[in-house]
Description:
This protein is α/β, with parallel strands linked by helices. The protein is built from five helices and ten strands; from the N terminus they run αββαβαββββαβαββ. The chain has helices at 2-11, 32-46, 62-72, 131-142, 161-167, and strands at residues 13-15, 19-21, 53-57, 76-82, 91-98, 103-110, 119-127, 146-156, 172-182, 185-188. The strands form two sheets. An eight-stranded mixed β-sheet has the order 5-6-4-3-7-8-9-10, sandwiched between helices. α4 links the parallel β7 and β8 (146-156). α2 crosses α3 (62-72). The protein binds guanosine-5'-monophosphate. The site of guanosine-5'-monophosphate has 19 residues, from β2, β7 and α4. Guanosine-5'-monophosphate (5GP) is lined by residues 19-21, 27, 60-61, 99-100, 124-133, 161.
Amino acid sequence: MKLLEDKILKDGVVLPGDVLKVDSFLNHQINVMLLSQMAEYIYNHFKDCKVDKVLTVEASGIALACLTAQFFCCPLVFAKKSKTANMQGDSFVADVYSYTHKTMNHIEVTKKYLSVGENVLIVDDFLANGEASKGLISLVNQANAKVVGVACAIEKCYQGGGDSLREQGIDVLALAAIDKMEDGKITFRNS
Ligand code: 5GP
């Protein structure tokens, strides 16, 4: 999505440790107009699938997922991160390693918000190693629901998470796909 690529080139900052900072428009201050157009782009890609729920993980995926759910006229569910397993009986639970924080997070969704047979679209801000997506897919599988696809704002292709999901037959949509970030210079796939 050219609009997002241009915004990343203009306002994104490459930090040490291969982290792209986009908090001026995506995950701290939010450019709602841009995210709304991104959500529409996701909708156009998946509109022929019957999407019953959009699923993300708190916190930074929520804004894009929320706007995406609005296009599908369906609920957004966000997995909560918690340090204890005290709701285990009532929740679907997965462990996710956080790339940015270098910590293991326990993510969970109350069982009543993911039901057998539902079509679930996973949406997140970044797709890097794919840990967050794999955790969310695990929650959907535990519910005996179906993943219709994974959509992310920014895929860091060189970390391999997106391609590993594609190899499993999952429809992965990246609105901006980064092939490399070297010396602060960002190169997009297909550009
Ligand atoms: P993954 O689990 O695919 O390795 O990483 C996805 C999660 O890590 C996203 O939910 C996102 O919050 C965070 N993340 C991964 N890479 C970056 C990055 O370069 N910049 C930012 N801001 N977050 C990232």
